[in-house]
Amino acid sequence: MEFKTHISVKNLSVFYGKEPALKNITVDIPDKKITAIIGPSGCGKTTLLKSFNRLVDSIDGIKVSGEVLVDGENIFDPEVEATHIRKKMGLLSQRPYPLPMSIYDNVAYGPRIHGMKDKKKLGEMVEHYLKESSLWSEVKDRLHTPASKLSIGQQQRLCLARGLAVEPEIILGDEPTSALDPKSSQRIEARFLELKKEYTIVVVTHILRQAKRLADYVIFLYLGELIEHGPAERIFENPKEEMTKEYIKGTIS
Amino acid sequence: MVRLGLPHMNKRRIEENIFKGLMIFSTFIILSCLLLILGTIIIKGLPAMNLAMITQTPKGGYYLGKEGGILNAIIGSLYLAGGATFLAILISLPVVLYLNVYTKKGSRLVFFTRFSFDVLWGVPSIVYGAFGFTIMLFLGLRASLLGGIIAVSFLIFPIMSRAMDEVIRMIPEELLDASYALGATRLETAFKIVTRQALPGILTAVLIAFGRGIGDAASVIFTAGFTDHIPYSLFRPAATLPLAIFFQLGTPIPEVQERAYASAFILTAIILIVSVVSRILTKRFTKHVVK
Question: What is the pTM of this model?
Fold first, then answer.
């Protein structure tokens, strides 16, 4: 299977103080596919993900070297505005964090800060992206009630709608289903499989079965090192590295 | 089943009960303090309370037991504490937003700023009065409403900042990240997310500061002065309730002393009314806060 590259990571190392979190990672992430970053806890999966939208910037004592090219542009170039990078990416975190405002305002927050003023168009966007994240039918009668009143599964779909509303190219998911019940998780996964037609999706997960269900491409990290990466079937059916074999078998976790 | 040694269990239970008893006793002391203070000002002040107290300014000979009221001090205190609270918000909010949104967690600047809140918090109010007085001399101001507002804002700004800082620090990092991830700048995140999320705490901070400001005598004694008239200009002296209480209590005449307690009652009632009203008002604005 041939892939078109969307995000290209070149010799990326990240240090927390003196502690290396990522060691010299080089990998290409395919366009309009779901890429799963797998590996045990504390192995740098989230750090890698947060490097893509430069959320690592706000961590104290962080040092980054190497390049991450998105559409050919090095996002760690000091000339590049972090806000410009982030507009290209929607993020789903481990636990949904709705903003302290109404359901409507949560979705409208992104478009508004990026300069959307037309009220009618804003309303249409809110409806469109709530439908995209299959939340519309549940909230259409209470758009102006607090987002915090939604169930946690609904909140995560709201966060998805909120992320999509800035019209990104890429969706980043940091174990986006880990706080959700099985039904809600299933809904998020179903949305991902649908959304990959239009978006590049990168998901961190430590649930192997989830990676098998979703991923087209897999990146396996272990203690900050990139052990193996490749098309999902190849990695799961026929891993080359001993470590990957053991992780997939369940000997290490 | 293994039987545990009974004597040992008893000892631990007695220990538990003794300490629980002590804690209940301490709680009781706090509650009785509040009740005693309220009781004293009500019992001693209520006989002297009348409509004239809150609707009239002092007439000639008021401090000797003649006609009049303390409307001058009520209005003066409200202007003064209101103005000082407003000034303090203008200083405190930018400081705490800067500390929590713009700076790195472990930085020295943050550490020293927080340390200075603590030090300033502990500075006695008479020192703020004296400090405010030197500033007034420097600016060529005389004892006036404006002078009082400046001195009191110095007094309450560390209290307000510290209280705001405490609540804003509690906001989870992930909530800020959620805003950044959507491409928001720090400024947008500070004003659209942080202030909204921390609104109940910010309001409490403002109220605590207002309460301290309206009740303080030492910082206004040189700076605001005193007058029998309702203040009509920022550059004229203004009467305040704490000083009205002080002057009335200082007379040898029992009726006037009773009026001091009545004034204390009015002061307490103002603080109570302001807190309750603003709590009710902000209930509406805080429904969005993410728990």
Answer: 0.85
